[in-house]
């Protein structure tokens, strides 16, 4: 694409929903969520093995890319439908989706903490409840609420970046493009003790802070997903024109996992996360195409889609069942992994259908209605 055409497309207003994103439900993305949560659970079940312990980050990063892509897509759909985006309603909807089950988990964890002396500190509970678990606060780290680090990153993204997107879309696009391209290069220079990025104390501290916030935490993966959605809505990337074959997206997924896995020979600090998230974004687009391929067939399996639907519930509750269970010595077979995983699925299912659904119904009431047409416009 010529630079002038690219510049024109990037400056254009978002005016239409791409055909592949027009449908309200994208089943293959639920399948991808299913794959991601299985990776996380497998990693936690085999946590004692250092090679599997770091695998969970791959699953979480997939969630981050999906989150950035889908949230940006929903905001654009709202703008196209209603003419503007209501941040107030957006924040209410996000709170109703994320917080009820998260706080229910913390309440259950508080009870278990008293009963089994799990060692979760008041600071740990507070950091989780305030969604700042990703910040290294003294005495806040523990296994049982440790997964709130990723929820904290997502909440912080929801708090700041949609505001910037609504304020000025083109500046938002430029900002996140610079963040995902420039920061990993600077971070790599700092890690390898190159020039001023290492020798100057102030600059080195700033680089460390920026990379901790954006690359050490996974925020870059959310931003890549968001940027991917922007490029699709601005028609810089046209999904239907992407080259594809039956094996491509599956091969790209295997490559992404290999690059994103910290024990891989292909893993490069600060750089691999960007490559990984870019490949996942590419895979998302390929599996939105109308034509089926090997990976879309796998993602379309009902088991993966159902697990994907429950993925958030499973992620919230899995920390109690996959490793170092609070009740592991309380009764016979209490530490049986098969039994705990079975109970985990039951708890997540009950949580989603009996508890979370109530808030999802309420959440739908805060969808913005399109403005009423005046009599003149109606005529």
TrEMBL record:
Enumerate the UniProt keywords alphabetically: Acyltransferase, Membrane, Transferase, Transmembrane, Transmembrane helix
List where the protein spans the membrane.
58-77, 98-127, 147-167, 174-191, 203-233, 245-261, 267-286, 298-317, 337-355
Show the GO cellular component annotation of the record.
Answer: membrane
Please give a single GO biological process term from the UniProt record.
polysaccharide biosynthetic process
Any one GO MF term held by the record is:
acyltransferase activity, transferring groups other than amino-acyl groups
- Species source reads Hymenobacter setariae
Q: Name one Pfam family in it.
A: Acyl_transf_3
Q: Where is the Acyltransferase domain?
A: 27-334
Tell me the superkingdom of the source.
Answer: Bacteria
What InterPro entries does the annotation carry?
Acyl_transf_3_dom, Acyltransferase_3
Name of the protein: Acyltransferase
């Amino acid at each position: 694409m010529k630079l002038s055409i690219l510049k024109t497309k990037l400056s254009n207003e978002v005016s239409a929903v791409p055909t592949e994103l027009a449908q309200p439900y994208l089943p293959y993305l639920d399948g991808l969520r299913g794959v991601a949560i299985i990776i996380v659970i497998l990693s936690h079940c085999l946590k004692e093995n250092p090679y599997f312990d770091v695998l969970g980050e791959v699953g979480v990063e997939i969630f981050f890319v999906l989150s950035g892509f889908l949230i940006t897509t929903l905001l654009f759909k709202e703008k196209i439908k209603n003419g503007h985006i209501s941040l107030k309603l957006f924040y209410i909807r996000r709170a109703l989706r994320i917080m009820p089950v998260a706080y229910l988990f913390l309440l259950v964890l508080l009870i278990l903490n008293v009963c089994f002396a799990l060692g979760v500190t008041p600071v740990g509970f507070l950091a989780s409840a305030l969604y700042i678990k990703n910040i290294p606060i003294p005495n806040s780290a523990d296994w049982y609420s440790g997964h709130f680090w990723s929820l904290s990153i997502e909440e912080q993204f929801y708090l700041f970046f949609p505001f910037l997107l609504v304020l000025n879309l083109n500046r938002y696009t430029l900002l996140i493009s610079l963040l995902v391209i420039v920061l990993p290069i600077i971070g790599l220079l700092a890690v390898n003790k190159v020039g001023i990025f290492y020798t100057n104390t102030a600059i080195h501290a700033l680089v460390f802070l920026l990379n901790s916030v954006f690359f050490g935490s996974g925020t870059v993966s959310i931003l890549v997903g968001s940027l991917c959605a922007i490029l699709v809505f601005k028609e810089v990337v046209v999904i239907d024109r992407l080259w594809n074959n039956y094996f491509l997206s599956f091969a790209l997924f295997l490559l992404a996992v290999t690059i994103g896995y910290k024990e891989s020979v292909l893993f490069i600090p600060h750089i691999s996360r960007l490559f990984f998230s870019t490949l996942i974004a590419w895979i998302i687009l390929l599996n939105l195409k109308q034509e089926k391929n090997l990976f879309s067939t796998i993602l379309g399996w009902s088991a993966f889609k159902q697990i994907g639907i429950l993925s958030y519930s499973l992620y919230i509750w899995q920390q109690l069942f996959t490793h170092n269970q609070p009740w592991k010595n309380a009764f016979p077979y209490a530490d049986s992994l098969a039994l705990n995983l079975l109970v985990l699925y039951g708890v997540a299912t009950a949580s989603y259908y009996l508890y979370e659904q109530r808030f999802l119904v309420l959440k739908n009431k805060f969808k913005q209605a399109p403005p009423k047409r005046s009599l003149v416009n109606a005529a």
